[in-house]
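re: ur question from earlier - yeah i can do the single chain one, its not a big deal. heres the input i used so u can compare w yours
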Amino acid sequence: MGYNRNWGTGGTYVYYTDETQQTTVFNKYKTYNEKTFDTALITLSAATAYATAVLARASTVRGVETITVPLGYHAVTLGDQVGVVTQRGTQSMLGERKAEVVSVEYALETPMMILGIRHGGTVETIVTTEDSILLTDESNAIVMVEA
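and the output i got, formated as tokens:
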């Protein structure tokens, strides 16, 4: 985690490496994958807190899939949390789960949107950025539910 950038000497950062979850993640996935984040933070304590928050989100691999929704949901943006019901036939496979929007593409010829989503935790932890929650079913039908 890069912090405390020295603007006078060419913009060099002081780096903090958080290795608190290294063994756990390696045992789970059998590979090392280190990423560097340069930030505008100025203290070690702020960099440590931020590194802890980033590791909490990035230490678990989540599957990414796409859903096609009407263009009317153009207000959905990257990082929004949506509720997704994954079904197999008529049975709910996983129930309603939280998913983060990781990509947004526009298919204007249809007119539809293709949302890339990464599954996360249970629906009770869905965070909404607007006044509603976006839900989809097995046919990718979208329903906005008032929060």
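The helical segments are 22-29, 44-58. not sure if urs matches, ping me
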